[in-house]
Amino acid sequence: xxxxxxxxxxxxxxxxxxxxxxxxxxxxxxxxxxxxxxxxxxxxxxxxxxxxxxxxxxxxxxxxxxxxxxxxxxxxxxxxxxxxxxxxxxxxxxxxxxxxxxxxxxxxxxxxxxxxxxxxxxxxxxxxxxxxxxxxxxxxxxxxxxxxxxxxxxxxxxxxxxxxxxxxxxxxxxxxxxxxxxxxxxxxxxxxxxxxxxxxxxxxxxxxxxxxxxxxxxxx
Length: 220
Hints:
This protein has 6 helices and 9 strands; from the N terminus they run E-E-H-H-E-E-E-H-E-H-E-E-H-E-H. It has one domain: 3-Layer(aba) Sandwich (Rossmann fold). It is an alpha/beta fold. Helix 4 links the parallel strand 6 and strand 7. It is globular and about 45 Å long. The chain has a 7-stranded mixed sheet, with helices on both faces. Strands 4-5 form a two-stranded antiparallel sheet.
C-alpha cells in the first residue's frame, strides 16, 4: 500500500516511539498538533497528525454515516490509508510495531479502534487511544477483537458530550475489556472537544506507556 495521506508532525529527529493522531469529522490537523504540548510536554513522541481524506465545505472527513451506520466503502478506504501511513512511518523510523501507538478523536478515535481490530490491517499498533469515540462497526467479518488482547487501550469521554454519548464509548470499552484488552476507561467533565480534560487523560496514559507501563483501569 502507498501512503497518500497529508500529515504534519512534531518530535525528535531520531524517535524511539511514534504516535499517529487521527482528527475527527470536519477537523484539520493543525489545531491538534498545536495542542501537542498538553499531552506530550517532554516531546517523547514523534507525533504525526493526519488529515481526513475527503474534503468538503464542512471540513475534511473520513466517512459519512446514515441510519445503516458508516459508509462501508469509505470506512474501508480510511482504514487502509491509516494502515499504509503506519507502515510508512515504521519503515522511515526503522522502528517496529511495539513503538507505535494510534490515537484519535471522535470519528478519528473510531478509526483508531477499528484499525487495531481490523483483520485486514498489516500493522498492529502496541496500543490505541479513543477520545470521545466509539467502535464504528460490530460486524464479525470487519473486526477481530482478539487483536486487542493484552494491548493497552484508552477510552476517555466527556460526561456532557453532546455528539457522541458516553454510553457508546463505555460500550466499546466493555467489549474490548471482555476481549482481554488492557482497557483504561475515564469519563471526565466536559463535552465534545479535543482539549483538557480529555488531553490530560491522554497525557497521563502516554507517559505511562513511555515509562514501560501497561496502564489498566477497566470500566465498572
